[in-house]
Amino acid sequence: MSSFFAAIFLLGLSLANAVNFTTVYEWDKLDFVWPSGADSSIEEIKRNFNPNDVEFQYMAVFGERLFLSLELKDGIPATLVWLPTSGKSTSPPKLAPFPSWNLHKQDNCDSIQNAKGLETDPDGRLWVVDDGSSECPGKIWIFNLLKNDTTERVHQFPDAVVSHSYTGRELTDIVLDKTTDDHLAYITDYYSEHIIVYSRKMDKSWSVITPGMMRWYSLALSPVREARQLYLGRIDSTELYSVSVSELRNEGGRAAVKLIGEWTENPYRMLLDSSANVLYAAFWYQSYLSKWNTSEPFVEQRFHEGGELDAEWPFTFALDTNGILWMTQRNNETGVDNKPRNKLLKAAVGARKNQFGTPTDLPSRG
């Protein structure tokens, strides 16, 4: 096939799979809801705060709130924030630290240090992966959104499961798997050959070795109605792998990974719409999203074109229970078109996030 006809073919695929996103908010500069009467440490951070340093990493949604983790940088006062999905004001909202300013104190190991992967369950819990700091080990936080955002559980990973050396770990993504009597979390650790597993019922974590394979970064979970597979992406590869979930439930065991196919670029974020068997992926420095129908042989299809975006991590996204795909889009340079640096977009993708069953919605927050 000539390059001309190949381009026409790819364009046709792009148009055929395009989804109409609508803009919810636009920000030229992101800002925080700063506390009144702040202590000296907050005031110092506020003086050093640079709005251009705010970069969204992971997203989760429940009820009428979006939860976002931010890249940890000097001057960023909190790495876990929330936004309303809608509001009466015409101006875009500011970022509100979750659950409060009190849980974001640097090098205080009773606070969130570096929020990464996020997930919500239908019982109104927000699960947060915390990579910790040089002083604080990695943790998983579980908040009850239906009970005034109270902290339900904090699990510190043992050194044998996740290294307590800050240079020996990098916790990234999380997905949740509800069994008949438990909630399991699967978590990636970039610096190990392991998949981390956490049981809420036992309040216990363990690691499962994937021999010879490491640098797992992104993951997604197949639907409940089949023999569940955990899809895995690496930071340094275009290859997509899977591992049987049944192998991950064996404490201290080993799991064989299977090559599924290759993306066009290296993925940093994946999301599976379990009711439609569609896996979405975003790629480092790339201004588009792709998808794959997991019920068919692996074929990558272009899903969304963001235009010319200058960002390492241009998108993050999450599905709500009504089949709405929420997505942030970042452009580091406003360019000649004077485009806003950050957008919140949404699109109906015609499916429901149903890996757990019917959710309980959370009342809106003011």
What does this structure look like?
With 366 residues, the chain is mostly beta strands. It has a single domain, classed as Neuraminidase. It has helices at residues 3-16, 40-48, 245-248, and strands at residues 22-27, 56-62, 65-70, 80-84, 96-97, 115-121, 125-130, 139-144, 150-156, 171-178, 183-189, 194-199, 204-209, 216-221, 229-234, 239-244, 258-262, 267-273, 278-283, 288-293, 301-305, 315-319, 324-330, 342-348. The strands form 6 sheets. A 4-stranded antiparallel β-sheet has the order 1-24-23-22, with no helix packed on it. Strands 2-3-4-5 form a 4-stranded antiparallel β-sheet, with no helix packed on it. A 4-stranded antiparallel β-sheet has the order 6-7-8-9, with no helix packed on it. The chain is globular.
